[in-house]
Amino acid sequence: MSKEQRTAVDAFYRSTRFDGARSPQEQREAFEAMMVGGPPPLGVTSAPSTLGGRPALQFEPEAGVTGGTILYFHGGGWIFGSPATARHLTAALVRRTGARALSVDYRLAPEHPFPAAVEDGVAAYRDLLESGVAPEQIVLAGDSAGGGLCVTTLLAARDAGLPMPAAAVAFSPSTDSTRSGESMTTKHGIDPLFTRESLLALSPHYLAGQDPRQPLLSPAICADLGGLPALLLQVGGNEVLLDDSTRLATRAAAAGVDVILDVTADVPHVFQSFTGSLDEADAALDRAGRFILDQWALAVR
After folding, report:
1. What's 135's domain CATH number?
2. Structural domain count of the chain
3. Are 20 and 201 in contact (CB under 8 A)?
4. Measuring CA to CA, which residue among 57, 102, 115 is closest to residue 84?
5. Is-contact 156 124, C-beta < 8 A?
């Protein structure tokens, strides 16, 4: 593990520090410019697709699919981002699992506030099931808001009577729209990207006046988590969102859910996106790949 690498990532994030006062369009343009550049992911092909009535990107290993299906949800505060901004993370899981992945371009706020993203998540999952993919061969995955969308899609699918997938993997998930975790204070200034204030400035676009204290907006503190599949929650030790994962893991375990809380010290939000330039990112993605393969293996026993 490299202190120099961690220092470089911290400096990069501080140079692009999130500004919640920007308009949604400004945030979209800045995020796309930051995340979409550079060469395409190695060893993986991608092509436009549709799922659940929404555009999507389908990723497959160049050597051929040997695993199940990953349903991926990109990050971006439910306001910005796209399958293209999460392509390196999605491809990293594909390379490690031999799976195909479908990354969904779910509707964004403020044009489409809550619960539009959750509705699109459930529609995408339902579409996979109706196309003949067995639930035990599906894993949900996502980062940041998309990690939170993994959890809320599971809750909404469970309540709709749909069978649960094999597992879900969430990178730095946002799971508490009240922003009430202690890490909002204890990690202030340590987190190079977010503050409680910047996140609270973003929230109204998605909430559209709704009370954040409800299960599909703050599952870490409000949801009944019983009946969910195995969860892997990966989070950085420097995040103001740290307690979104720790509290979700504690409550999930109390509800009888198999859950792994995987905290990497001294790294920021969605540090896995620095795959190839941060040793901790590659190690975490290796663990996520093994978790997915293990869950698929358990599902066929």
Report:
1. 3.40.50.1820
2. 1
3. yes
4. 57
5. no
Full DSSP string of 17-86: ---TTS-HHHHHHHHHHHHS-SPPPTTEEEEEEEETTEEEEEEEETT---S-EEEEE--STTTS--TTTT
**How many CB atoms are closer than 10 A to CB 129?**
15
Reply yes or no: is the peptide bond before residue 115 cis, omega within 30 of 0: yes
Range of the structural domain that residue 155 is part of: 3-299
pLDDT, tens digit, for every residue of 185-204? Answer: 999 999 999 999 999 999 99
Q: Which two tokens stand for residue 172?
A: 């730095």
| Per-residue pLDDT at 19 | 74
What pLDDT does residue 1 have? 54
Q: Tokens 């035990």 appear where?
A: 136
Amino acid at 25: Q
Helix (H) or strand (E) holding 5: helix 3-15
Cβ-proximal residues to 247 (8 Å cutoff; 6+ apart), any chain: 175, 176, 181, 220, 221
Helices (H), 16-54: 24-35
Which residues in the chain land under pLDDT 50?
A: none
The runs of H, that is alpha helices, within 187-278 are 196-207, 219-222, 242-254
| Phi, psi for 114 (deg, rounded to 5) | -50, 135
Question: What pLDDT, on the 0 to 100 scale, is given for residue 105?
Answer: 98
Starting at the edge strand found earlier in the chain, the sheet holding 230-236 runs 44-51, 54-61, 100-104, 69-73, 138-143, 167-171, 230-236, 259-264
Over its C-alpha atoms, the chain yields an Rg (Å, rounded) of 17
258 φ/ψ angles, rounded to the nearest 5 degrees: -70, 120
The catalytic residues are 144, 239, 269
Per the structure block, which two tokens stand in for 23?
A: 């308009």
Which residues in 1-53 belong to E strands, given as ranges?
A: 44-51
Pairwise CA distance, residues 36 & 272, whole Å: 15
- Tokens read off for 293: 């393969």
Amino acid at 244: D
CB 106 within 8 A of CB 120: yes
